[in-house]
Design goal:
Keywords: Endonuclease, Hydrolase, Nuclease, RNA-binding, tRNA processing. This protein is of the alpha/beta class. The longest helix is centred in the middle third of the chain and has 18 residues.
Length: 161
Amino acid sequence: MATIERLRRRSEFLAAAEGRRFHTERMTAQGLRREAAPEGLRIGFTITKRVGHATERNRIRRRLRAAVAAIASDAPAATADVVLIARRPALSADFETLKTDLARALAVVTRPRAPREPGSDASRPERGQRRGKGERSSSTPRPAPGAAPSPNASDGTGNGQ
């Protein structure tokens, strides 16, 4: 059984936000593997005021905690920090659906990154370069921002005026 503890400090929540993400209709999971001790999974919960009133947010938090406890024996034995950001549909979702979402999210965000080979960054475009659209044709100049349209430009009605 995996050890599951809680995230408590803001810095831990912010660090987890830098890791992988997994989205569902009911929640978003953000996770980051840790190299240092303590071993085990640490989970934090974020339920914003936008989700609902305090009683609704607390109910969502309790449901997520119960889902974590229910899948604890099947949770990945990873050393990672995970933040669960709840959405309003988590309030009325079937509990089995919450458990399934949570299990999938933990598997994705705690998965180790694939090792990169040296020089494999050659396939990535340089910062600022376009990707997938190719070079822009020099024969069709782009108007300057805020410039008036040319007199023979179409207004989208199909009659050229």
